[in-house]
Amino acid sequence: MKHKNEETLLVMLALEGPRGRERALVMQDFDEIKESIVLEQSRDVERNTKPGFRLIVGVGVQAMQQLTGINIICYYLPYVLTNSVGLAGSTARLLGGVNAMTYLGSTFIGLFFIDRWGRRRLMMYGALGQCCSWLAITVLLNSSDEAASYLSKQRQLAGAAVFFFFLFNCFFGAGWQGVSWLYFSEINSTKYRISGMSYGVATNWLINFAVVFVTPLGIANLGARFYVIWTVLNALMVPIIRLFYPETAGRSLEYVDSMFESHPTIWTFKYKNMVSRKPEQIRIAMDEFPTFTTTIEYANVARKPKLGASQVSVSPTSPRTPVTPVTPIAPSVTASSIMNYVRGKGIWTPELLA
Questions:
Q1: Measured CA distances, 45 to 305, 317, 347 (Å)
Q2: Tell me, what's the pLDDT at 136?
Q3: What share of the chain is helix, strand, coil (3-state, %, to 5)?
Q4: So what's the architecture of 52-244 in CATH?
Q5: 201 CB-contact burial (10 Å; exposed 0-12 / middle 13-18 / buried 19+)
Q6: Looking at the predicted structure, is the pLDDT value of residue 131 above 80?
Q7: What is the reported pLDDT for 141?
Q8: Domain parsing of the chain, residue ranges
Q9: Residue 322: strand, helix, or coil
Q10: What is the percentage of the chain residues whose pLDDT exceeds 70?
Q11: Helices 151-174 & 119-146, crossing angle to 10 degrees?
């Protein structure tokens, strides 16, 4: 968006809609983005948006994704079914393929609920379901080992364990598979988003390697007890997310910045606007405020070095609040391709941006 405010606004209007309430929301978002960039790049305004804590949170969600034990199943399910459950090799490979299709299908459940339930709830529900699945697998396989002298009973217990391997993949596909990749891009600030995502991906693959490396050794030496590790790890994820992980669904990236700036503690569960699925939003009455915008005052910033962010006022317009009018935007040569696109859709008129 650097030095391309006109083109940026035109794209946002083309995406969201140029008239009525949609136009007001676009102008609000546009102003918030500009203000956030100015605040973040300014040397005169000191903001504490907790970039270090947010980096740890983003890396943590990638680490936890691998510590769920998903790649025990993705990489080794035929091996697990052969060595832990006792199935024939051909049957184990067939079930591995079916399980992969189940995994794929469950991801669409996550697409439906990711904004309706929010990131936190989907991760907590997923971790709880995964914990219960690993617990059931552990109990059933351990019981199967003890019932080795009763072949029919052993097969029944092993067959029930296979069901919970499938169930685990359903919980993971609906929750952690997509949310973990989305969350760590939303939680980091603009300045540290690229580096935060890089650290997160590196962490994901390092732990992936560790899990894949130890799995054959763990099954060979611990048997069914190996799965206790993953039961405990999934159980620990629920309170960790509950206590430290804020909700990002329904929030703009600028809102996330202000959310961290306004709350000094890492105990996010204490603040409703950090964990609620639907944060408090400014209601816009279009009949009263047809040219809604936001204003930010930098009065005497030059004479006040290191002005605290709490001293910078950001407020919606109201009948009693003087506002800076929106600067008219005229078509430019650099925006010609976008302008042609907008005109071609029939949603641009010269008076729209006047």
A1: 7, 23, 39
A2: 93
A3: 70, 5, 25
A4: Up-down Bundle (1.20)
A5: middle
A6: yes
A7: 85
A8: 5-46+283-353, 52-244
A9: coil
A10: 69
A11: 170
